[in-house]
Amino acid sequence: MGDSLSQVPEGLIGGYQGGLAVKILMVVFSSIALYNAIELIILIFLVFNQYKGLYFWAMLLSNVLGVIPHAVGFLLEFFAKGPLWFAVTLATIGFYFMVPGQSVVLYSRLHLVVQNLNVLRQVRYMIIFNTIVLLIPTTILTYCTIYVRTESIIRGYNVMERMQLAWFCAQEILISCIYIWETINLLRLRPDKDPTRKKIMYELITINVIIVLLDVALLVLEYVGFYALQTTLKAAVYSVKLKLEFAVLRKLVLLVNTRPSDTSSTDHEEYPNFVNPEQLTGDITHAAPVRARTRSRYPWSAISMDSLDRSERRGYSSETTRPP
């Protein structure tokens, strides 16, 4: 480990000189990321009626200015196409919007299951603090490693790059764990005669566990020294996690709005695929106008049942189920 920390990561300067198999994998990972990002951009504009709100902008910018520049930038860097400064800058901009952007997406729907305002506030402060503390030093060390290349700077970059990835992964895992915990608490509000609600809870937990496992996979590749694979896989992983957001959001809305008497209905037995835009229309980032006494303290991240398609609302309660 000590020797590897003193060496410039393979591919950061002069392109990747490794085997063909690794180069093929890098192209495959980047292609998956670009495909998912383009598909998500189309779906976002088909799904949302009003192009505003924290959830909308976090999803859109994480794809347009996050996944796409990150994937393209590292392809240019590893295959030595064009100026190095341009490739590194493009990849850095993509990282800024993609990785912290994922945490913002997670935060923007956190209010659906968390009623403790202090927890919501602390999560928001954590995202802001970690973004500032981790991104600025890593960016400076990246350019210094490329253009100065002293041993102390290279070692500092390798340490900071590993710490940055681990820190952001821990942040996303923490937010996912909050979801899992609060979702279990939501289920406890209902009796055992609520099988559909229980099924939704397990599906929601499974999606969050998949997100955690994807983060762990990135950490493993980073710490075993596969820098090129880890950076190209990262864009693919985050594009997949953003696609899973459609599934998580839909299930959360269903979970917190289903009445016990409705769960015996067959309307939701076949839950539509989350990438089908016909199943979800309207602005799911904003609540319908309500009286001031019931207005959310977080209007920028509210999600309205009235914005869903009529078929999506069938069987939903007119009153949102909330934990005490």
From TrEMBL:
**Superkingdom as given in the UniProt entry:** Eukaryota
Give TM regions. Answer: 20-47, 54-72, 84-107, 127-148, 163-181, 202-229
**Taking every annotated instance into account, which residue ranges of this chain make up the domain DUF7703?**
23-255
What does the UniProt keyword field contain?
Membrane, Transmembrane, Transmembrane helix
Q: Work out whether the entry's keyword set contains Transmembrane.
A: yes
Keyword NAD in the entry? The reply is: no
| Name of protein | DUF7703 domain-containing protein
**Species of origin:** Aspergillus caelatus
